[in-house]
Every structure is written in C-alpha cells, then in structure tokens.
Design a protein that fits this description.
mainly alpha; Helix Hairpins; two-stranded antiparallel ribbon; about 10% strand; disordered C terminus; chaperone; Prefoldin
C-alpha cells in the first residue's frame, strides 16, 4: 500500500516539476518579448524625432546599409505589431492551456 502511494506521489512530483519548467520557459519567453517591445518603442520614438534630412542606417550582418526614413518607420511599426500580437494574443504558450495541468 505504501509503495503505491509512494509511486503516485512521485508521479505527481514529476508533473509538478515539469509544470515549473514550463512556467520558467514561458516567463523567459515573455520577458524577452517585453524587452524587445520596450526597445522597439524607444526606436519608434527616436524615429519620430527625425525629419527627411536625417540619414537612417540599418545593420545587416556586419554592414550598415542606408535606409529610407519611411521604410524604417514602417519596419519598426510592423515589428511592434508582431511582438504585441505574440504577447497579448497568446502566440506565446500560456501555462494552463494543457487540459491535464493543475491551473
């Protein structure tokens, strides 16, 4: 009887540990997305301060390439939309989506 309870308890502990790993992975992914969102909002604000006489460069690998201001603004805007969608629309896995979870 005690062995059966011990095995069941061990199984539940393993499930709990897996949930902790999943939560940690989800939190890490969310934190990365939040950091990217903050960085891109700062870039958007900086680009808003520029006018047509300013030159904007884009880093492609080890090379800086000249980019049109409008194109840079559009790129940052699309990036913000994508990151926001990932964060708020649940593209990032959310703990509790698994029907077998305890949440």
């Amino acid at each position: 009887m005690a062995e059966l309870i011990q095995k069941k308890l061990q199984g539940e502990v393993e499930k709990y540990q897996q949930l902790q790993k999943d939560l940690s992975k989800s939190m890490s992914g969310r934190q990365k997305l939040e950091a990217q969102l903050t960085e891109n909002n700062i870039v958007k604000e900086e680009l808003a301060l520029l006018d047509g006489s300013n030159v904007v460069f884009k880093l492609l690998g080890p090379v800086l390439v000249k980019q049109e201001l409008g194109e840079a603004r559009a790129t940052v805007g699309k990036r913000l939309e994508y990151i926001t969608a990932e964060i708020f629309l649940g593209t990032v896995p959310v703990l509790g989506d698994d029907p077998g979870s305890f949440c």
